[in-house]
Amino acid sequence: MRPAPLARRLGLADAVFLGLGSMIGAGVFAAFAPAARAAGAGLLIALVVAAVVAYCNAMSSARLAAIHPESGGTYVYGRERLGEFWGYLAGWGFVTGKTASCAAMTLTVVAYAAPGLGQPWRSALAVAVVAALTAVNYFGVHRSALATRVIVSCTLLVLTAAGVAMAAGPSGGGPLVAWPGGGGVLEAAGLLFFAFAGYARLATLGEEVRDPARTIPRAIPLALGITLVVYAALAVLLLVRLGPAALAASPDPIAAAVPGWLAPVVRVGAAVAALGSLLALILGVSRTTLAMSRDGHLPRFLAAVHPRYQVPHRAELAVGVVVAVLAASIDLRSAIGFSSFAVLTYYAVANAAALTLPGKARAALGLAGCVVLAFSLPLPSVLAGCAALLLGASAYGVRRIRR
């Protein structure tokens, strides 16, 4: 019996806002400081490198989504174009990496919304945040799209106000652009890739987008282009206002770079932006979980679609529970590095799948970029990512033997 389909309710504007909600909140408030610690004044170069790799990945994803408009994203593309194992590996990388991203965004919300809160109330608030957003997704993707549109609009208003204030402030000194020694730029690009990876959520929603063959290839580059403009403008302003050293040392660089009266507004905006990222992240992870469950790679009961709300409600609840547990126990910096490695693996499979289509140059560049950036990340992140992929591959092998 064919599984129940999801409802196609999302148009172009909805898809673009979901992509923006996934990217802008994650990158602006979580990735600049660790990237600046790695690259220093090479931050802008790292941003360009990350953007080029993200663009190649986005184009590969858009082309594949037009051919395979199903929920699951690269899990489906790898399975259909390369074979079952590669689709499974991509899906495993996406689910594990983006679950870590969900935890990172939950911790970002808590850090900005309640900076002085101690344990156990800090963990309790993290669990409450995950529960609330899981409930929003449970009652339908259309409501999630509307909520994301409001959140993204508020975030852009806050960032615009912060940008104007930073432009009017004094300079922090130091070079604006420089190439540091070693692999600092590549490490920073790998960390910044965490901020660009939101367009994956658009591909995973292929079964819920109206006219996906036309909508997704338009929505992905639009969302990515808007995000790059926002990131580049803020990176320049932060480097001019704080300087590379102060930017690298600040846990809250945008709030630190604006006048004191505006800092509380920025912190509220950061919390709202992270909520937008978390909302879209849970949405995307649950859809890949749905696709893998349909194929038996995850428990099949997770493939159920709610008869009224037409969403994968069991998958969403399962993802929500796992994220809540991680958010109560994981470290933010480690979560970002692990997530970047896993998601770069996911996009490496997407580019490899795109190599089976005409016009291979961009996909080849994207594949090479994913591999280089993944292994340029901090060593603990690389080791943890390799261990997670090995665990997933071992589980696949055991399942094949049992068959």
UniProtKB/TrEMBL annotation:
Residues annotated as transmembrane: 12-32, 38-58, 89-114, 120-139, 146-170, 176-199, 220-241, 261-285, 364-393
Keywords: Cell membrane, Membrane, Transmembrane, Transmembrane helix
Any GO MF annotation of the entry: transmembrane transporter activity
Gene3D superfamilies: Amino acid/polyamine transporter I
Membrane topology classification: Multi-pass membrane protein
Cellular compartments annotated: Cell membrane
Record's keyword annotation contains Membrane: yes
GO cellular component, one term: plasma membrane
Record keyword Phosphoprotein present: no
Listed PANTHER family: AMINO ACID TRANSPORTER-RELATED (PTHR42770), MEMBRANE PROTEIN (PTHR42770:SF7)
Name of the protein in question: Basic amino acid/polyamine antiporter
Organism: Amycolatopsis vancoresmycina DSM 44592
Lineage: Bacteria, Bacillati, Actinomycetota, Actinomycetes, Pseudonocardiales
